[in-house]
Structures are given as C-alpha cells and as structure tokens.
Amino acid sequence: MINKKSILITGGTGSFGEHFVSYLLKNYNPKKILVFSRDEQKHFKLQKEWKDHKNLRFLIGDVRDLNRLSYAMNEVDIVVHAAAMKHVPQAEYNPFEVVKTNVLGAQNIIEAALSKKVKKVIALSTDKASSPVNLYGATKLTSDKLFLAANNYKG
Questions:
Q1: Pairing state of beta strands 78-81 and 32-37?
Q2: What are the helix (H) ranges across the chain?
Q3: Residues 16-21: contacts with CB within 8 Å, 24+ apart?
Q4: Cβ neighbours of residue 40 under 8 Å, at least 6 residues apart?
Q5: Do 125 and 140 contact (CB within 8 A), yes or no?
C-alpha cells in the first residue's frame, strides 16, 4: 500500500513524474514524496504549485550520480524510476549521454536501492524496448534486463 510510505520518484519533474505526484497527492496519504530530478526550473515551478503539501521534498540530482541517489534513498520504501532520456533524435545524436542516463542510471538505481534495502522498485519502460530499432529502445531494453536481473540479487 502507498499510504504512510516514503516514495522517491526519479524523473519526478518530467511528464510522467509530475502527473504521478499529482495522482498520489489526490488519492493517497504517503508519508513523504521525494521528487528527484536534475531540472532546477521545473523543481521551482512545482514547489510553487504544490506549496501546501508538507509531505513533498524536492531533491535536485541525477541518476548518473550514485552517491546522490544513495543519499536520496535514505528511509525510502518505494522507488518509482521514471528518469530517462526519451527523445529518439537526441539519443541518436548523443549516444554516450543516453547510455549514461538510461543504462548506467538504471544500474545506479539498483545499487542504491539494494544498499539502502528499499522494499520495492518500479521501473518504467517503453514499447520501444520490446523490439529495439534505435539506440533509445536498446538502452531501455538493457535497463529492463538489469532490473529483472536485480530480482535475483534481492531474492
């Protein structure tokens, strides 16, 4: 159950993250929601929009930074991993950046969650991962495989 749980949302200022936070605030009573994102401007906008919600925390950080993720996951029950580089043209033009975010970022989520004993991690994916024809799909497929393999470590 979500009520009375601490929830960290990576990519929390993105399109999914913003809607998911709004959904949680309207329908549940979480102990704490940590909005984790590298977008300072969107943090500022959402802090003003949701200023009346005392259970919200806004953490600037990047999934590429394992130390920051580990710090953010202190006493977190659930992680919803929505952070990703998603735009196919930008991915094709900037392949190293997409790999760092979508693959190494996923690995960082897994390592931090395991070390902090997070109870549940939910990773968002895409239909483009099922039969990848571009780099974005390939990185999301790799991310999916990493999360599936992490279940073996957790037991």
A1: unpaired
A2: 15-27, 40-49, 66-72, 88-93, 95-98, 105-115, 135-154
A3: 16/82, 16/124, 17/80, 17/82, 18/42, 18/46, 20/80, 20/82, 21/46, 21/50, 21/56
A4: 60
A5: yes
pTM here?
0.94
The token duo for 68 is 């920051």
DSSP secondary structure string, 50-78?
TTT-TTEEEEE--TT-HHHHHHHTTT-SE
Is the Cβ–Cβ distance between 82 and 9 less than 8 Å?
Answer: yes
Tell me if 76 sits within 8 A of 8, measured CB to CB.
yes
Contact assessment for residue 7 and residue 32, using Cβ atoms and an 8 Å cutoff: yes
Which residues does the annotation mark as catalytic?
Answer: 128
Chain segment 89-124, per-residue pLDDT in tens: 898 999 999 999 999 999 999 999 999 999 999 999
